[in-house]
Please model this.
Amino acid sequence: MTSSAASIVPITLTVNGRTGLTLWAPPWEDEDGDEWHGFLGDGAKILLYPNADELATFITSGEENDLSDHPGWGQVLKSTPAELRPDGDDHYDLDAVYEWAGDEPDPVHVSALANVVDMVAKIADCCDDGALRRLVEDTPEYAELTDDEVSYQGKDGRKRWNELGDTIADSWERAINRVDSWLNWQGEYDEEDAEILDEEALWARVGAQPIELVVQDTTYYTVRGEVLVDASSTNTEMAFIGGDERVAVFTSVADLADYCRTAKGHRLMKLEWWNELADVEDDAEFTPEDDARFDLRKPTPDAVAVARQLADFCGLHDDVEVLDGPRVDRDDWRALVDEIESCFEKAD
Model:
């Protein structure tokens, strides 16, 4: 779900070793012109769920909650579990703050820290927690972190980064514990649910997705993601691992995982968080989700969509014209898929 003026956004919060899924409503105006913002809550605390299925079950139950009067709640009621999965920037790992602060002040770590501190401030405001609000908003180091113009480069920047680290070491445990006191964890949080949410959070943050492609005789695995067309543009295009109009594909998830951890120079290296995949030890986290499996043996709507993306990436602009009509001819479809497969770099 994407954010808009009257939207409700799925997010995950990781606090004290647990990751839960909830809903966040950015500021909106009611019919009287008053501005509100808030979380999915029970009137006293923020509700968190172990997975999208359980969150969807609660939503469809019709039970009253703190967002029931939101103008976008009707749209949420129609959401499928897949639509309740957070986007890349909507994962807030409070536990990782210590690690990020102890690393280099590059844009990735600064941005991640600022996003978490900003979300903690929103929790403090919505829960009317004066102590938590003072901790994150009245502490100069936190206030500077969330400034859009902040930079920790140079000698002075490094000094302020170290001061921020000292502030986090001294106060972040208090912030985590106060946030946790406002959370109402629903359902059973088993290890499998935690792994699924962590995996979804990882790929959403990276801005890419492992996918499965089934052709006539083989099943291939690769990764796709949106990248900027060029450094001076805000326009994006779908890209795949590989390069020079070639798509790197694999017949095993393990080989795909190894490539993602170690390969350099492919198009998705441009993604800000791509290098985080190098630290993922479990090959299973590179397994495509059920909604990322595409059977290219017949021109279903999903297969046509991914074929168009592959053809564009491989420079097959003339060939893709066969997809533009109201109905795709089967012979044309097979010829296009064969042409796409000829662009696969089988890198096992």
